[in-house]
Every structure is written in structure tokens, then in C-alpha cells.
Design a protein that fits this description.
254 residues; globular; transmembrane helix; ABC-2_transporter-like; Transporter; transmembrane; membrane
Length: 254
């Protein structure tokens, strides 16, 4: 329904997607401006940083397209309209994800994929079958990891009721963090996004394997292929948190 309503005004939709694409592209413009002054950032060249950027933004854009509406859950909890989702013959999570579905979010994923395509051509990599297959696996795993953050953040809103910005700190903030190489950050921060909130498996760890660079924190060689396992664990944990939040919901009484 939301897709049909969006496409009813095709010119407006195209302009909105293009505007979204240009706005999200400003992040990469900032990176280009940095490299206009330096040859490397934390020891990483422009094509290598673009590779990190493309993996992160494409994965995040996919998750945002599917689950970006989770941020509006707090409003439904506050005004009591969440009750209407509970009586419909469809999974509540699917209904929340589809609520005011914004097809214009395609712009971020498309822009990220364009940068990733350029980076794959520009980076100096001795390609093997394993490395080539690791790219789509990493993108899917990264989308699941970001999607898990969206779901867990939505579940937290059952408790906080107005926690969209807290959720955004980990989702939007996470993808911004991953656009830069781990070598520019403190070791404690890298530990946190590797072992506590495993965002490093969205791009840092797989990219290190593809590019032939040292793994963050000296992780073992097989860590690059652990992204699907990490994504599965994140998804299972997010599902558990979501069910717990749903059980705790008590409505507004109105």
C-alpha cells in the first residue's frame, strides 16, 4: 500500500530518491576532501577506504530499507495505536517494518553500491574465488547485523517509549564509524565494536582479508569468514529481545 501511494506521484518519488542519494553521498564527499590533503588515512588508500565505505553503506541501506520504520515504534507505543497491530492476522514485526514504508530509502543503498562498485575496480587485490564470494556474503551478513540493531532498538522503545535517537546512535552512528579504517580509532573502541557490538564484521574484518591487511586486534585468519555466524547470533539475540519487549507491552489503557 505504501509503495503504491509513493509511486502515485512518480516525479516526486524520483526527485526524492535523487535528493536522498545526493545527501547520503555527502559522507563520501567528506572522505574525498580528506584525501585531497593526504595520500592515506590511517595507512589506508582512497580505494581501500571506499571499499570499507561501500560495504558499510550498502549493508546499512539494505537494513534501513527493510526495517527503518522501527524508529517510529515509540510513537505508536506512546499514543496507544500499537494496539491495532496486535489484533491483525500478521506478525507484529512485519507490520512495524511495513508501517509507512519509505521506498525513498533506496537512495542510500544505491549510492553505497555505486561506491563499492568503483572500489572493487580500483583496489589492488589478487582476487580468488574465496575473496569474490566473500563480498556478497559480507553484504548479506552486514545487513542482518544492522537489521538486528534496528529490531533490538525497536524492542527497547517498549521500555523507553521515546528512544529513537538512542537507536540511531547505534545504527546511523555505527555505519558512519565503519566508513573509516580501524587504524584511526583507539584500541578500546575497536575492541568494543568487535567483541561487544560486533559491527567490525560488517566490513572491517572481511575487508582486511580481501585487501591483505592485518586483522583488527590480531584476530585469527578465519575470522573474516565468521560474519554469517555473527549475523546469525545477532539475529537470534534481536529476536529474543523483541519477543521479550512485546510481552512486556501493557498498552496505554486508552
Amino acid at each position: 500500500m505504501w509503495i503504491r501511494s509513493t509511486l502515485a506521484y512518480r516525479a516526486s518519488f524520483v526527485l526524492t530518491v535523487c535528493g536522498n542519494l545526493l545527501l547520503t553521498g555527502l559522507d563520501f564527499v567528506a572522505i574525498l576532501l580528506m584525501f585531497s590533503q593526504v595520500d592515506a588515512l590511517g595507512g589506508w588508500t582512497l580505494p581501500e577506504v571506499a571499499f570499507l565505505y561501500g560495504l558499510s553503506v550498502t549493508a546499512f541501506g539494505t537494513a534501513q530499507l527493510a526495517l527503518g520504520s522501527m524508529a517510529s515504534l515509540g510513537g505508536r507505543v506512546r499514543d496507544g495505536s500499537f494496539d491495532t497491530l496486535l489484533v491483525r492476522p500478521a506478525p507484529v514485526l512485519a507490520q512495524v517494518a511495513a508501517d509507512r514504508f519509505a521506498l525513498r530509502r533506496l537512495g542510500r543503498g544505491v549510492q553505497g553500491a555505486a561506491v563499492l562498485g568503483w572500489a572493487l575496480v580500483a583496489v589492488d587485490v589478487d582476487w580468488t574465488v574465496a575473496k569474490a564470494l566473500l563480498i556478497p556474503v559480507t553484504l548479506v551478513s552486514g545487513a542482518v547485523i544492522f537489521g538486528s540493531l534496528f529490531v533490538a532498538g525497536g524492542a527497547f522503545q517498549f521500555l523507553a517509549q521515546d528512544a529513537a535517537e538512542v537507536q540511531n546512535a547505534f545504527t546511523y552512528g555505527g555505519t558512519t564509524l565503519l566508513q573509516y579504517p580501524p587504524t584511526v580509532f583507539g584500541r578500546d573502541l575497536v575492541r568494543g565494536v568487535t567483541f561487544v557490538l560486533p559491527l567490525a564484521f560488517v566490513n572491517w574484518v572481511p575487508a582486511a582479508h580481501v585487501l591483505g591487511r592485518p586483522y583488527p586486534l590480531g584476530l585469527p585468519a578465519g575470522a573474516a569468514f565468521a560474519a554469517p555466524l555473527v549475523a546469525a547470533v545477532c539475529g537470534a539475540l534481536a529476536g529474543t529481545v523483541w519477543r521479550a519487549g512485546l510481552r512486556s507491552y501493557r498498552s496505554t489503557g486508552s
